[in-house]
Structures are given as C-alpha cells and as structure tokens.
Amino acid sequence: MKKIITVIYTLSFVIGAVSAQSVYDGVKIADKDLNGTARFVGMGGAMGALGGDITTMGTNPAGIGIYRSNDVMTSFSYSAYGMESKYEGQKSTIDKNRWSFDNIGVVFATKIGNQTPLRYVNFGFNYKRSKSFYKNMSMSGMMGVVENPSNPGSPYYVSQTNSMALQATDAERYVWDNSRQHLDFDNANRIFSDPDAGWLGALGYRGGLTERDRIDNEPDLYVPFLPVEPSSVFNSREKGGIDQYDFNVSFNINDRVYLGLTIGAYDVDYDKYSGYDESYKRGEGYSLESYNNISGSGFDVKMGLILRPFEYSPFRIGFAVHTPTFYKLTYSTSAIVTNDYRDANTDELKRIIVDTYDYVGDMKRDYRLVTPWKYNVSLGYTVGTSLALGAEYEYEDYSTMKFKYSSNDGGGDMEFENAEVKNCLKGEHTFRIGAEYKVIPEFAFRLGYNYSSAVFRDEAVKYIPSNSLITDTDFSNKRSQSNYTLGIGYRGKMFYADLAYQLSTYKENFYPFYNEFELTQGEWTMVTPPATKVTNTRSQVLLTVGMRF
C-alpha cells in the first residue's frame, strides 16, 4: 500500500543561502564500515579492551598502549556487492565486484623502563578506508493511484511531477509574499542561479512537465501535466569513499592502565548518479538525471582508556570517547530533464531537453557537517595464551548531527536542515563480540559478530526545500545491519599473515520520491509510492600481512 504520513507543517522555505544538502547525505558521510586489519575484522571489531591491533587506534586509542614491539602491516580486500529490490511483485538484482587497498599502518613501541610507573610510550599511524560508497540500485513498476487527499473521492496519480509543481509553487509564494514579484521561470539564464528558486521546480517548468496558472495580484500556481498513471524506472550508481588517517600516542602505566589519544583526518569523495523515468501512453514520458558529488575533509579526536582492575586477572575494561568529526564539504551538482511529448496541434512526438550545465556549469555549494559524539565501552578477557574474548557497546546519537553554513555564508547553523535531522534520525546502538582461539601458538581461528541498529525513524522522508539545488528525490530508510565474520591467522617470530571473511547484510525501504498536500491550515500529508523492499549484501575477503620487530 502507499505510505501516507500526516505531519504538522513547518516552514519549507530556506531563508539565506541556497539549500544543497540533505539528512540522507549527512548520514552517508557520518557512517563507517567495519574495516581494518583482517584480525580486527575477523573478531567483529570487538578489540577495544583487548588492544594490540593497529586498527584499535580508531576505536579505542589506548589499545596501542598494549604493544611492546614495533609493528608494520598492510591489507587488501576483494568485495562482492549484491542488491535485490522488490516492488509490487517486480524484482531487480544487481551484482558488482571490486578489489581495494584497505589499510596500512605502523606502530613504534618505546620502552621507558621496568621500575618506573610509565613502562611504554607508543606512537602509531594508520590509514584505512573507513567508508565505501559503492552501491547500485534499480527498481521499476507502476507508481499507483490513491484517493486525492485534497479532494476526497477523486483519484490522484502518484508522480514525481507533483513534487516539481509544488516546489515551484512554494518558491513563488515565498518570493511573492516578500516582494510582490513573480519568479522568472521563463528566463533559463537566470532561474538556475536564482537563490530563491529550487532546481526541481525550475526543471519541471522549463522541461514542459508543469504549467503556470497566473491570476492578477496573486502568486502563480504551478500544476503538473500527468495524462495517466505513470510506469517508472529508477537506476542509481554510487561510488567513492572516505579515507581515514589516524595519528596515535599511547601510554602503558604499570602494565595495568593504558591511555591513548588519536587525531583523525578524513578525506571524502562521494559520487552519485541517479536516473528516474516516467512513461505514459503513445511514447510520451520524461527522464530526470542527476549528477552529484560531495568532496572535502574533516578531523576528529579520539580518547581511550583500558584498565586491568585486578592485578592477577587478565580481565580488562575499556572506555573511549570520539569527538564529532568536523567536516568542510563541497556539494557539486548538475541535472538533465528530457521530455518526450505529443504536440497538441499536430500530435507529433517532440522532445525538450534542459541541461543545467548549459547555464551554470557544475553548481557548487560549500557547507560544514558536524557528526555526533561517539561513546564506547568494551570488555576483554584472555585464558592463558590460547583464548581471547572481546565485547563492545557503542552509542552515537544521530539526531544531534549538525549542518552549518560555510564561513562565506555566515557560518551559522542551518535551522531547516537541523530540524529535519531531529525529525528523521535517532540514536544508533552498536554491539560487537569476538573470539580468537590459538590451536597452537602459531595458528589462530577467529569468529565475530557486529550489529548496528537503524538510525532512521519510520516516518523519515527526504524533504526538499523550495530553494534547493537537490534534484535526486530518491531516499532509502536503512534498517538494522548485521556483520558476520570469521578468520584465521599465522604468527611467526617476525612475520604474520591474517585472512578474514565478512558478510554484511541490511534491508531498507526505498522511495523514488514523495508527494505532499496541504489538508488544512498547517497540516500536511505526504504520500509516497509503495515502498521498494531492498536487501543489500557485501561479501568481503580481507588479507593482512605484516612484521613485528
């Protein structure tokens, strides 16, 4: 069935800089994958209290304080990505495989002495791919018909063109209320650089998908051309990633207290192409293609502590706090509408193409993103030298994520986007458990599990303001994610090698767009097509080789 949400209306106009970012983009940047050394992955990442692995400098920095020798290593992986979508009985599948360079790091262990409280001061560096954006999506089917929320008893065709018309109408109302002037949608050389006009509405009108209804001394009203229920096809391709560079210093005090500090630097490169088509009868229809890129850099600080509370017990407890990651980002976008329509006089099939690049090139907007604080508690226990057990809990409240304007735009908070963050997002709970068993001192087997709860609320939608550059109207509400891991390892006197396998799986509800209606003053209804049920999987084989000396 269609998803219908009734909400209390909040101001959809963004006063100030042009809107160019969404909650969904923010979550992509803030989220991280389970990645690192094969040993770390093989144990499900549950090594915060155990330490002794280079990757722990990114989860609990005190873990590097466990080292008593130098370490240098590198990791490579092969991943197979799978996507299966189901929409109203129609099924689509996409598979993609790729190699990647995932990890390289070094630790220098400096012994201070056996008699002093401070036993070791260690330094470390680690690079890893903290997030991979590689993902393809496809769905198709009839968008459907619902009862018109604004006119009960009459049909309403669910279509992206309704969103185009509504955005143009909202932008027009805002300009009219503030200046008693009309937006100049007829001037293509101006409309795509007008800070009060949204691109979705401008493309709809310039592409002949909406028409204007003008009344004297009133703001213009825009309505869509929608002859019949549309048959739709959606495709998207995402690629890129976030590279993480960690610099660590850690301390070993009396072999019972370990302290660590990590400074993290991040490099972001995210590309997304999306194409949405609606087809009608007799060859009519249109396509909207969006090309988006987010690039930039950021930094954070991570602080960690590991305690061995009982002198003659191997039991350890760990604590870590990560500050928000402070990103400076640039959003770059362009879009193309292609409309095939029948001439009203000749019935000839004609085509309109509108490409924003022809008027403004790649439109760029700078902004800042502040991710949530992260809190981590971990437990570790060893049985002799043959068995190691780890468990972790991590919490990150995504509803506290902040969007801010760039310094060129005043540097203040983005009130609309931050209100949407609170409306759409919630806290994420992550649980990790792992075990390592050494059959003989040189060979070990590992198992792990990692669970992360959903960060999107059930009623979350990708709300696009009236002056937004955003034209990719699609959004997915990701549900919980599970990672199942196993691994093996070899340890020689100096050389070591580890192999891990990871299966990641999560489901999400996908929507190509939403439509919105005002029922009464201040009360709105949002209508989406039926949810496309999507299952995403990733199988990863990870190899790490290194030397301790």
Features:
mainly beta; 55% strand; 14-stranded antiparallel barrel; Porin; 3-stranded antiparallel sheet; 549 residues
General description of the model:
- With 549 residues, the protein is mostly beta strands.
- The protein has a single domain, classed as Porin (Beta Barrel), CATH 2.40.160.60.
- The chain has seven helices and 26 strands.
- Strands 2-3-4-10-11-12-13-17-18-20-21-22-23-26 form a 14-stranded antiparallel beta barrel. Strands 1-25-24 form a three-stranded antiparallel β-sheet. It has a two-stranded antiparallel ribbon with strand order 6-7.
- The radius of gyration is 27 Å and the shape is elongated.
Quick description:
Residues 1-20 form the signal peptide. With 549 residues, the protein is mainly β.
Please, what is the CATH homologous superfamily?
Outer membrane protein transport protein (OMPP1/FadL/TodX)
**Coarse structural class:** mainly beta
CATH class annotation = Mainly Beta
Can you tell me the overall shape? elongated
Radius of gyration: 27 Å
Task: Please name the CATH topology.
Answer: Porin
Mean pLDDT: 90
CATH architecture: Beta Barrel
Beta-strand content: over 45%
Number of helices: 7
Sheet with most strands: strand arrangement? 2-3-4-10-11-12-13-17-18-20-21-22-23-26
Number of domain modules: 1
Distance between the termini: 62 Å
- The low-pLDDT segments are 1-16
Task: Note the main sheet.
Answer: 14 strands, antiparallel, barrel
DSSP strand count: 26
Binned, the helix content reads 10-25%
GO molecular function: long-chain fatty acid transporting porin activity
Family: Belongs to the OmpP1/FadL family.
InterPro entries: OMPP1/FadL/TodX
Protein name: TonB-dependent receptor
